[in-house]
Design goal:
By secondary structure, this protein is α/β, with parallel strands linked by helices. The chain contains eight helices and seven strands, in the order βαβαβαβαβαβαααβ.
Length: about 250
């Protein structure tokens, strides 16, 4: 249980779901983890549980779409732990997954892109210098199978996740010389607060699971184990890759 021993990680959207599972797993594997989100009480609870297990974690309130907020996160991580080795760009929103294009507003479209895509660019930009100073690093962008295949009514979400996929490849090519690896993870349907609390969640889940060959949704922990591999030195020859974890959905 020490695959990330002596590593320092930032995990965004860590108050629940895949972010919480990833931060908890990272800490159990020896990393010092800075959890970020906009939900202070949930962050405090997650960090408390991690510390009760004897592991190292802190949290900071963070607007991932704001560049100044990113600078504060980076400064806090360095003040607490002295360096940054890993960034997991996990924060995201669905927006309205059921709005036809003629009914979708530009403001809502831009909001989804800001949280899901701009945030990942800002995160990468913010950690490049600290990772260069550390001699390298690992960045994992959480995308979606929606970044690979289309979905009617989800144009904002799929555009943001497709952008995440392309951003990952561009950043991987640019930062390889600095030994900074950048990869993306593309989950299928996973039951998280983001997917279970939205309008029409039950119908959406039924449709998603109905088109999944393994016949079920994934769990946050199943995604976290893939992220752990990409964050660890075990994946030292892996960059610019997309890891699909979807129960076989896009194999059809």
């Amino acid at each position: 249980m020490a695959r990330l021993k002596n590593k320092v990680a930032i995990v965004t959207g860590a108050a629940s779901g895949m972010g919480e599972a990833t931060a908890t797993l990272f800490a159990a594997e020896g990393a010092s983890v800075l959890l970020t989100d906009i939900q202070e009480e949930k962050l405090r609870s997650v960090v408390g549980r991690i510390r009760l297990e004897g592991n190292t974690a802190d949290f900071i309130i963070h607007d991932v779409s704001n560049e100044a907020s990113w600078q504060k996160v980076v400064e806090t991580a360095i003040d607490l732990y002295g360096k940054i080795d890993i960034l997991v760009n996990n924060a995201g929103i669905t927006g309205n997954l059921f709005a036809p294009i003629p009914e979708r507003s530009a403001d809502e479209f831009n909001r989804v892109l800001s949280v899901n895509l701009l945030s990942q660019f800002l995160g990468i930009k913010a950690v490049v210098s600290p990772m260069q100073q550390a001699g390298g690093g690992a960045i994992i962008n959480i995308s979606s199978i929606g970044g690979i295949i289309g979905s009617a009514g989800a144009t904002a979400y799929t555009a943001s996740k497709g952008g995440s996929r392309a951003l990952t490849k561009g950043a991987a090519a640019e930062l390889a010389k600095d030994r900074i690896r950048v990869n993306s993870v593309h989950p299928g349907y996973v039951a998280t607060p983001m997917t279970t609390m939205m309008e029409g969640a039950e119908d959406f889940a039924a449709r998603a699971i109905g088109t999944t060959p393994l016949g079920r949704g994934g769990t946050p922990e199943e995604i976290a184990f893939a992220v752990l591999y990409l964050a660890s030195d075990e994946s030292s020859f892996t960059t610019g890759a997309k890891f699909v974890i979807d129960g076989g959905t896009i194999a059809l």
